[in-house]
Amino acid sequence: MTYSVKFLPHNISVKVDDKETLIRAAMEAGVHINASCGGGGVCGKCRVLIEQGTVEGGISEQLSNDDQEKGYRLACVSNIASDLVVRIPIESQIDTSRLNEQTGSRHTAKATYSDVNELRQDGLFIPPVEKIYLELDPATTGDNQADVTRIINHLRIHHNEHRLTMNLDLIRKIPDIIRQGDFKVTATIVRPVRKDGKNEIVNIEPSDTSTRNFAIAVDIGTTTVFGQALDLQTGEVLSQHGEFNSQISYGEDVISRIIFAEKDGGLEILHQKVIETINKIIEKILKQGKIGRHEVTTITLAGNSTMAQLLLKINPSYIRRDPYVPASIMYPPFRANEIGIALADHTIALIYPGVSSYVGGDVIAGIMASGMYRESELTLYMDIGTNAEIAIGHKDWMVCTAASAGPAFEGGGVKFGMRATKGAIEDFSINPETYEPMIITVENKKAKGICGSGLITLAAKLLEIGVIDSRGKFNQTLGTPRIRQTDGIWEYVLVYKEDTQIERDITITEPDLDNLIRAKGAMYSAALTLLEEIGLKIKDIERIILAGGFGSYVDLQSAITIGLLPEIEPEKVTYLGNGSLLGCKINSLTNALRQDVAKVVNMMTNFELASTASYMDHYMGALFLPHTELNYFPKVKARLEKLRK
Amino acid sequence: MTYSVKFLPHNISVKVDDKETLIRAAMEAGVHINASCGGGGVCGKCRVLIEQGTVEGGISEQLSNDDQEKGYRLACVSNIASDLVVRIPIESQIDTSRLNEQTGSRHTAKATYSDVNELRQDGLFIPPVEKIYLELDPATTGDNQADVTRIINHLRIHHNEHRLTMNLDLIRKIPDIIRQGDFKVTATIVRPVRKDGKNEIVNIEPSDTSTRNFAIAVDIGTTTVFGQALDLQTGEVLSQHGEFNSQISYGEDVISRIIFAEKDGGLEILHQKVIETINKIIEKILKQGKIGRHEVTTITLAGNSTMAQLLLKINPSYIRRDPYVPASIMYPPFRANEIGIALADHTIALIYPGVSSYVGGDVIAGIMASGMYRESELTLYMDIGTNAEIAIGHKDWMVCTAASAGPAFEGGGVKFGMRATKGAIEDFSINPETYEPMIITVENKKAKGICGSGLITLAAKLLEIGVIDSRGKFNQTLGTPRIRQTDGIWEYVLVYKEDTQIERDITITEPDLDNLIRAKGAMYSAALTLLEEIGLKIKDIERIILAGGFGSYVDLQSAITIGLLPEIEPEKVTYLGNGSLLGCKINSLTNALRQDVAKVVNMMTNFELASTASYMDHYMGALFLPHTELNYFPKVKARLEKLRK
Predict the structure, then answer these.
(1) Do the chains contact at B146 and A356, CB–CB below 8 Å?
(2) What pTM did the predictor assign?
(3) For B343-365, what is each residue's pLDDT tens digit?
């Protein structure tokens, strides 16, 4: 259910979801309310007057009985329970004439839609591993063909299945199983990528188990590993779970992992650690989904090239050394338990192919999930993270590259940086006259730090109001105590220590901004270089797809304002969420995808930025907010000029 | 070099090989010389007079100086050193008029010729596993494709190799190996059976090892396992070795092995035992052939269905139980070390497919080696042993069956039966007047027992002279002390104890003959039943191929006389020797064979004698020497009548 909320004196209305907090509604409307603590009614600054309608909560010790009776509530703890008219009190209000020139309402990217029904309609809901129930004729003196021959002939004659094979381990089990099931058995068959390939029978079970066919999809991130359990009858996600990648204690990023892997026994340790993590996730999602381990017929995994090589215990050393060569881009299907994954003997593991050392299977999985390889619009695919991967193209061609963005987007190299967990500042607004902030944190908890999407919004807002300049340096003449110098470093105080969880002032510093600028500069210039290499321009881009957990939270206008994303209509930007996981899911549901993957990988041209001469020039030009070349950002330019006039 | 030897007074000449003993020349000429001890000059009975030419040796304590000076020599220790004229002394000579009515000169079957040059000429000398040397372009910044991609692309572009795959284990090794070899490597590629199948790269080695490519061929007999090492560059057999199958202590025949396998842990033990035997053989032939273990790229194995299932650790229980169902007739290629064979990770094991529980891969290997599936002559293929397998057909169709012959052909169930090793009586002649024997043993050692081929000759000679009748019963009225009754059993004394190695009289008994009759009866009636089932007659057979170690030694006329083989010109009979081993060898040399094997297995119709109504009648009829129906053996009938007139 949605309600309409009108903010006065701005006279701006927004539609918001039932139970949403009032402060988030204000943020979405682009209405500033001073709010220092991030939520929980701690600072008491976000007093608003409910003129019409009702909210639930909205009261804390910080609100006097008098105010309460007058109809004031604290916006951060008020849940919207009807259509509302809300007045922002004068002290937290700014010149209304300037209000609507700010970024206005928030736009996060819309989700790319992916639906199992669509697959079904297209006749593509044929998983790579299927189960078929067989009622065989029992062996008799007159018909004593070999057990394996009986199964294969039955599949050939009654199910039009051809080019069947099986391995020795399965043949070993068949004589007893076929009789245990009284010649009624269920065959599990793995489909080939190419239609003229072989269909491998990987399991024979007594009786009819054909309705119990499950898959697992796993995204192996450098930081986090996510798994989903899927029902291959219905296409439903039955359960999901994420864990930090246990490799993390051996290095935060892929390079430090590779260095560790080069030590004696290091590769084995990192391999074991990620397997442990995967097994922990499998344990949970099977339990939650009420799935037997032996009922899982396939597991699809995607990760960047280093994650893939560590998973498969392949020396990743040459990935980090010039000329940056991965072992392989494609991996054959294999039995999951061959690498220690705790699934049955017959469970097939499929690894997403990658393209190069720094454009791995996770990116390809995302591209497959996005469907951009089927469309004719020119699409820019951006997987934003420490390692930023970019692909550009459409159904006829595709190019890609990777850039090292540094850890700023994930909260690294930022003084109060943190991941997007409880208490992370994720949204921000600033009073253009008082420079007082409005802070929104993840789950409305007292502030603890700044997450990646929060950092982008912070930088954009500070830039718009002129608190920082295009080089990310603070304006030292604004006369607010929030802008100050500590140990020679300029910073802006977001939350004073009494309103934090950490008992220290939370600030954003010039070095933080510098790291952000370098990260966004790497990302943007990579896209620019790639376009230039193929003779296209930024303005040719018709669509942007954002991948990474990050993509779903980032405020698009802020991202454009700081020059992370090219200037494009927010409607043209969609996000995939965890594209890698989604790609694994789709791969589990339709074998057709595997043929498409091979096609995409083969048509993808990889550019190494290190050997692309223009990259460094583009990068230097991108080390400004939004960019040295403001013509790339005409609307941002116009808006900044107007705001600062 | 061959010499001519003329025997007087018979006036029969034979051509014999240089260094052959005189007694074997006499046996080949059909000339009887009394000779009791089997060789070594022990009994001194085989005195002959050298009238022209010279022999080496021929002297022992049993020959007086006087005789020696007169030119007498002992035939069993005389090696022929020139053309000779030899007179048989009167006491060991028989009525010359009857001489030439005996079986005359010996005919053993000619070997089926199989030559690697023929394969080469036909362009078929393409082993299932090949090695190709690759000089790759080293990785550079401008060309940093994945290591695996580099190898596959090079093979595609420079060697026209397509549809290439490799497994995870190999991918793991490639990054280091490719650099160790400085981008010069040798690829080992396994060919598919079908041309549209995949070529699997199973190994990548640094530098050029392409000239070191070896195969191993192994015949897994129930009793004996034989192995050969082959050079896949030249096609040469570099070394070979045989060992008793170590399973033998768990049961002599397949049924007792299956019963043991059904016990707790029994299958594992039998599996381990045969693997131990194979590994022992591999150890020896590699050492002898100066081959490194990692240089072996393929091992082809053949055995009967029980041996195959025990090798592969597949429960063989249903093989011995009605309706006699094997687990599989075809087995996929796998890594040899997967089942414990001590070869490298990349060595591929190929198992010969079989047809049914009792017509196994050993028979198919022999059929493939014989080439009968390519010819248009109607061929009878007989693998003579405890389990007798028979196939009939030609290039357009083929039928097969198996009969349990019992162990008589291998010396089992025969009082003094033994395998064809030193001291085994392998040839025999009898004086039709005195009933004194002429004994020839394997390697001319003092007699120790009777081997299978010896037993057949014994039975045939005793039948011809009328010492036994067509039911295998002794004529008790001949007045020779050699025919006697011991403990109620009639027997003929072949060697008195003083001339044996075993210090007991060596005899052939009525129960021995009874076992032989049942064995040959099973064999012959199986062939007859099979022919009848497809509407043909014995006389339609144009060619006979004998397989089994046995086949090369058996005297063909004797085998026909007792009714083991159908009456056919001896020239039409060839022997393969160890057809199973030969089939494995050919499979190692030409991948084309694998396609043919699939064709043969698919066109082969298997008959179960147990469910073929006429078999028991044919069997009962065959329990006579040569047969109840003498019209099947018109020439034998005529000769027997003449000999006994």
Answers:
(1) yes
(2) 0.86
(3) 999 999 999 999 999 999 999 99
